[in-house]
Design a protein that fits this description.
mainly alpha; about 120 residues; about 65% helix; 7 helices; elongated
Length: about 120
């Protein structure tokens, strides 16, 4: 990035050319993106690639979520967990879980949070 030269400057404000301002914003956004990549790589290194990729979505799983499929169902199937096991872990009836996964029952916020 080129050197940014203020057009005017007071004690409280600095006026920049639009191009300079846009370049500063892009630079800040790039720094945030690079920090996120570094954090992700550190996570992969800390837990190991095989463990980390269990949390990655395949293209098909992402497509299912984007098309509105129930996220609990997608993740349950990704993990290979049966409805019965998930219902027991969430301390809810299998019928209740089944209704939630088909979006036929609104459920209480507490129960939904404990399952999701």
């Amino acid at each position: 990035m080129n050197v940014v030269k203020p057009l005017t400057q007071t004690r409280d404000t600095i006026t920049l050319k639009r191009a300079d301002f846009d370049a500063l914003v892009r630079s800040a956004e790039d720094a945030v993106d690079l920090a996120a990549v570094d954090a992700h790589r550190a996570y992969d290194d800390r837990v190991g690639w095989d463990s980390a990729r269990r949390n990655y979505l395949t293209a098909d799983e992402a497509r299912r979520l984007l098309h509105g499929e129930n996220p609990v169902r997608v993740w349950r199937e990704k993990r290979g967990i049966s409805q019965g096991v998930l219902a027991e872990a969430a301390n809810v009836a299998v019928s209740y879980l089944s209704e939630r996964l088909t979006r036929n029952s609104p459920g209480t916020s507490y129960r939904v949070i404990s399952m999701e």
